[in-house]
Specification:
The protein is of the alpha+beta class and 480 residues long. The protein is built from 22 helices and eight strands.
Length: 480
């Protein structure tokens, strides 16, 4: 059976290759026999490994779980090697897979996360070729100096420090050669291979990932679009002057998601830098790579905003209501757990009541594996805007975990403030009564004041001054 299935996979892959060759839209010479063959071979080996390694072991036994973990790890390493070898779009998709903590086994996410720091670098000759083709000039004609070693390299491009002819120091982002030409072909290759895998494993539901890549990759490869996004978000967030990083990264994203509906959707560690300002001594967040933004519709943004308000308040009726409005249906408990990366028990208790424990993390991962069919069904049903937000949430949680600020009270307080402001702005925009708008503004001010008061209480509770006040009040109580 396994050999027949593998033969079917190979025949299907070969048939897809004939299709690619005969399609005038695609140039097989650009694809490269080695590039396509590497992807087909990796898919075939992984498929064969899953089909043969677990067939003789009783399902659910300790031996089965151990062997399954080993197959996961081997397969993840093969995928990582494929991504590093084929570069470009493959690395981009691999990075996305590495962020799917709520969907993929830990062996995959842990192995593929390293792709954020293993992006390829183009050579000096390749850089010169790209600049020559795109700008029609040589490097020495455009810059007084141009550093050969990049400041950073990503899956689709890399950045170099340079000085313009007028003496201005700039960062030059240069797309890797052939990425533009190969991206659509890579996505088609992935789509064909995933369809083949789905024929062998009917429960395998990852076509939505290809659909998202089809839509988002052209945006990320359009550097003019990235420039416009950078200017827009700089204007949108010009009033922020951050003093602390751990808390304010969440504040930054809450502002983008709930208030502005314009969200930077690739906040992996390589795109979020922390720099100390020499003049003021303050720490600043530097947000890089503005190619991929999600624009949220007003109706979606309000439903998402009210859902998070309900989650923070542990209002289960409203959690159910707004989860359903966002496409979760009867799977709203699973949806709430995916959004918060918390157990259903924690969601019911209140996600701001306690930090995430190690045992809860293990429970979440175990449930993710057990509920894989329901998770894939949910991902197919929710609005497409939600897919990038889920990815963004996972990337932010990874950064917060590294900074030890995950699920902190201050994060939820910042989210609450943004939700209150967003809902009030929306209500005022829909009201034609001056009295009603004044009423909304007063309610907003009172709600924000309550949040500030609660934050002050938490600060006092955790400070030395607060301990003195509590001790004094306790002494006065016993004295009376």
């Amino acid at each position: 059976m396994a050999r027949r299935a593998l033969k079917l996979a190979s025949l299907a892959a070969a048939a897809s290759g004939i299709y690619l060759y005969g399609n005038k839209f695609l140039d097989p010479n650009d694809f490269g026999v080695v590039r396509v063959g590497r992807a087909i071979a990796t898919t075939a080996v992984i498929t064969y490994d899953y089909l043969t390694s677990l067939r003789s072991v009783p399902y659910g036994s300790e031996e089965y779980d151990f062997l399954k973990s080993q197959v996961h790890l081997r397969s993840a390493e093969r995928l990582r090697e494929l991504c590093c070898a084929n570069r470009g779009t493959f690395i981009k998709v691999g990075q996305h897979l590495g962020a799917l903590d709520y969907l993929l086994p830990e062996e995959y996410t842990r192995t593929l996360k390293v792709l954020h720091s293993q992006a390829p670098q183009s050579t000096r000759q390749e850089i010169e070729q790209v600049i020559r083709e795109d700008l029609g000039k040589e490097i020495k004609e455009l810059f007084v100096s141009f550093e050969d070693t990049p400041l950073g390299a990503a899956s689709l491009a890399q950045v170099h420090k340079a000085v313009l002819q007028d003496g201005t120091t700039v960062a030059v982002k240069i797309q890797h050669p052939k990425v533009q030409a190969q991206s659509s072909k890579d996505i088609l290759l992935m789509e064909v291979l995933l369809l083949v895998v789905k024929q062998i494993f009917p429960d395998f539901e990852f076509m939505w990932l290809v659909e998202e890549a089809k839509k988002n990759l052209p945006l990320e490869l359009d550097f003019l679009n990235e420039g416009r996004n950078a200017e827009k978000v700089a204007h949108m967030l010009k009033n922020f002057d951050f003093l602390k990083i751990s808390r304010n990264l969440g504040k930054l994203y809450s502002e983008m998601i709930f208030v502005n509906g314009f969200v930077h959707c690739d906040p992996h560690p390589g795109n979020v830098l922390v720099k100390k300002c020499p003049a003021s001594g303050k720490a600043h967040i530097i947000l890089l790579d503005h190619g991929l933004y999600q624009v949220l519709s007003e109706s979606f943004r309000m439903d998402y905003c009210r859902l998070w308000q309900a989650l923070i308040k542990a209002d289960m009726k409203r959690v159910q209501k707004y989860s359903r409005r966002l496409g979760a249906g009867d799977l709203y408990p699973l949806f709430a757990c995916m959004l918060t990366a918390r157990s259903w028990e924690s969601v019911n208790r209140g996600i701001d009541r306690s930090p995430v424990s190690a045992s809860e993390d293990v429970e979440i991962r175990s449930n993710a594996a057990a509920y894989l069919p329901q998770i894939t069904q949910l991902l197919n049903n929710v609005p497409r805007q939600m897919l990038l937000l889920l990815k963004t949430n996972d990337l932010l949680r990874g950064i917060e975990s590294a900074l030890h600020t995950r699920a902190s009270a201050s994060s939820f307080l910042n989210m609450s403030r943004c939700c209150v402001r967003a809902v009030s702005m929306y209500q005022r925009s829909k009201s034609h009564s001056l009295y009603r708008r004044a009423q909304i503004s007063l309610t907003e001010a009172l709600s924000l004041w309550q949040i500030n008061l609660y934050e002050l209480f938490l600060w006092l509770k955790g400070s030395q001054l607060g301990n003195w006040v509590i001790a004094l009040l306790s002494w006065m109580h016993h004295s009376t």
